[in-house]
Amino acid sequence: MFNSKIYVLVLLMAFAPCSWGQTKQVRGSVSDGKAPLANVNIKIKGTDTNTLTDGEGKYQIEVYEGEMLVFSHQGKKTVEIVVEDITRNLNVTLKSWVEELDEVVVTKRRKKSQNELFKEYNTNKNLIKTSFGILDKESLGHSLKVVDGDDLSPAGQDFVDALESWIPASYVFRPSAFRIAAQGSLTQLTKQGRPSDLTAPILYLPRALRHPKPVPAIFEIDGVLTTVAPTFIHTSDIERIAVLESLAGLGKYGSLGAGGVVIINTKTGNFSPKEPEEKPPLDQALLRDNYFVEKDVVLESSLETPIYLEKIAKAKDQKEARTVYAEMEKRYASSPYFYLDCFTHFSELKGDMKHAIRIVKTLEKRFASNPAVLKALAYKLEAQGLNQEAHRVYIKVFQLRPDYVQSYKNLAYSYKNIGEIEKSAALYARYNYLIGESILGESDEFESVMDKDFKNLLVLNGEKLPKGATRSLEKSDDFDGTRLVFEWNDGEAEFEIQFVDPNGQYFTWAHSLDADPSRITEEKQIGFSSEEYLIYKPLNGTWKVNIKYLGNKQLTPAYLKTTVYHNFNTANQTKEIKVFKLRARNVNQQLFALN
Predict the structure, then answer these.
(1) In whole angstroms, what is the distance from residue 328 CA to residue 309 CA?
(2) Is the dihedral angle over the CA atoms 412, 417, 422, 423 positive or is it negative?
(3) H or E element at residue 250
C-alpha cells in the first residue's frame, strides 16, 4: 500500500478547479501562404456561431475553451483547431486542394517479385492467387475486386449467395429460385433459353448484362478452372475471392472468360507462410531512398541572436551584465522569451546562477497563468540540474492543467528527479485509475510513453517502494538501446524531426496539422505533447537528430525538450536532458548526435 496521505494529495490535485469552459476572444488572420484570404468562414464546430475574415484576412470570434474552430474556404483544405487555455491568436494558412509544385521528381516504382508477393499474401488483403501468378490489386492496370473470406456471410444456400451481395448488378439463376440484383426477370431469362434442369446456380456478372445474350461467369478454384459454381466449398473454407470483369484482365482466360471470372483461394490450399519471418527491429530510414545532405542543416549558433543577448554578452563582467539586463528588461518585460533567454545566458555563459534564479522568480510572477511558458521554464531548469526549482514549476502547471494527461507525466517524472519515489509511483497509480474511470482521456501514443516511464521507475527504484507496490509490474520490455522522449511546451507547435542513421539515410516524423490533423486534435483534446523513439542496439556509428520548425499559430517560438536514455531499463542507465528554442521557421536545424 502506498502512503494514504500521498493518495489524498494526488486526489485533491486531480480534481482541482479546471479552467476549461471559460469564454474568450480569439483573433488572428488567414492566408494562403502568399496573401490574405477574405471571406474565410470560421465556425465553432457543432454550433451555428460563425464569422468571416475581412478584406485583410483578419477575424475575431468569441469561443469557449475546448471548442473547435473550423476554417473553410472554397478550393482550400479545411482546417480544424481546438481552442486551448492559452489560445489568444490563431494565424492560419489554408492550402489549396491542388498544390503548386516547385519541381517535379519522377521515380520508378520497383515491381514486387512473385516470391515477395507469396510471402506477404497472408498480410496483404489485396493479393489473389491465380493459375497465371499472384495478382496485386494495387499495382494492376485494370479493375479487380477482392473480397476477404471472413467478410462473406454464412447465410444463404451457399457462398454464391454471399458473393452476390458483393457484386453490384450481378444476379444468380437457379432452377427453382433466383434473385436479380439490378435488372432482368424470370420471363426474360426463360426466353433467353436458360435450361430448367440445372443442379448448380449460374452467376452472371455486370458486364454480361450489357450483352444481348448474357454469358455466365466461370470459376477458378486454387488454380483449377470450372464452368460450374463450386457450391461444395463451404464459406468458412474460403480465404479470399476476387472478381475479374474487365477485358484487360480476362484476356488470359480466352473465350471461357467472356462472362467474367470468379477466382477462389481456399484456406486448405493456402501454403504461404502464416507467420512473418523473424527479423530484427527495422531501421525506418532504410525503407526510403533518402540520403541526408550535410549542407542542408544549420547549427543553433548560426541563427540570429536577439539584440538583448548581444548587448549583455558585450559586458566586461557580471556587474555590468546585470546593469545591461536591467535596461533591456524595461523594453522586453512583456516577452517571456526575453527572461528565458537571459536565464540561460546568466546560468550557463556568465556563471551567475544567483542572478539567473532572480530571473526565474520574475518570470514565474509575470507569467503565472501561462502553462506553456512555465513548462518551457521547467525544461530549462531540469537541463541545468535544478530539479527542486523545476518541481515547483511543474506543480504550478499541474494546478493550471489538472485535466491534461501530460501534467501527470511531468509531475510524476519530477517527483522521481527529486527522490520522492513513493509520490511518483502514487501519481502513476492515480493516473491509471482516472484513465480506467474515463475521467481522463486515453491515447495509445501517450499510453506507450507513460507505460515505459512507470516501468522504468519500478525497474530502477522498486526497492525503495513498500512491499507489494510493484505487484502489478509486468515483465519489462525486451528493448535494449537508446530511448528518446520528445516534449514540447506549446500545443500549436508544428515541426518535422529528422533521424539520420549511421549510413546517412533518414526518416522524418512530421508533427503538423497538414500531415496528421487527427493526431494534433487528439493531443489537444486529451492534453499531451510528447512522443518517444527507440534506437535499438547496436548503434554502429553516429546517429543525428535534426528538426525543422514549421511555426505555430501565434507566430512565436516554441521549446522542445529531449530526454535521452542510454542503456534504457538497465543498471547502467544514464540520461541527459537537452532543451532547444525553436524560432527559425522552415530551417533544418541540427539538434544533437548520438555516438
Answers:
(1) 9
(2) negative
(3) helix 247-250
Any idea what the Cα angle at residue 130 is, between residues 129 and 133, rounded to 5°?
Answer: 85
| 50-52/41-44 β-pairing | antiparallel
The type of residue at 159 is F
pTM (whole model) above 0.85:
no
Question: Contacts by 317-320 with C-beta closer than 8 Å and gap 24+?
Answer: 318/350, 318/351, 318/352, 318/355
Residue 469: the pLDDT is 55
DSSP character string of 458-508: HHHHGGGSPTTTTTTPPPPP---EEEEEEEES-TT-EEEEEEE-TTSBEEE
Q: Block means of pLDDT (10 residues each) for the chain, length 595 residues? A: 43 44 85 90 91 94 92 89 90 74 46 80 89 84 82 73 68 46 34 43 59 73 83 84 80 80 87 57 49 74 86 92 95 95 90 93 96 97 96 96 95 96 93 90 89 90 72 53 93 92 86 90 93 80 91 90 93 93 91 89
502 in Cβ contact with 540 (< 8 Å) = yes
**Domains of the chain from N-terminus onward:** 18-93 (2.60.40.10), 115-266 (2.170.130.10), 368-594 (1.25.40.10)
How far, in Å, CA of 227 to CA of 246, rounded? 18
